User: Fold this.
Amino acid sequence: MAKLESSMRNMVVCLALVTLLASALLCGTYALTKTTIDTATQKDKETAIKNVLPNKEAKLGKAERVSLEGYKDDFVIYPATLDGELVGAAVETYDNNAYGGKIKIMVGLTQDGTISDYSILETAETPGLGMKAEEWFRDKGDIRGKNPATTKFATTKDGGDIDAITASTITSRAFLTAVQKAYESFMKYQNK
Assistant:
């Protein structure tokens, strides 16, 4: 095989070919894995809804979208009924101000807004610090059984009633804000 002359034209052509090949491989991999990833994400969401609901025998209703002022994306309410009466809901909530960006949570609420449970759906927090949120707010800063109507869902450092994750105040603030927004969107849903 003959060696190409080292010229600007040849270098640009080679770089363009390598870039085109890499782009094609990335697009192909994305196309092949997108359906699998979407299916897994949906399954995780369905599992989270079942796990956070206040009453496991409750029947899930049609998902409803609720918008709150100052938030670009809607909050999704999955109402739960038992014998035709609303017993609570699972609320897909988020906050964009976590240390790693967006944190997305599924929060279970009873009819009066008391937190029954939660599950983190998506986060990019620092391993070992912000990633502790899943356990922290069940153990040391337990939010289950608390109602944002009577408990200030902010860190004690910010004058609230909930202990922040040690060395991870930004994540704690974002997590608690997302839970507060779940409560507010559920109350708005009930009052419409």
User: Anything to note?
Assistant: The mean pLDDT is 92. Strands lie at 59-60, 64-66, 75-82, 85-98, 101-110, 115-122. The chain has three helices and six strands.
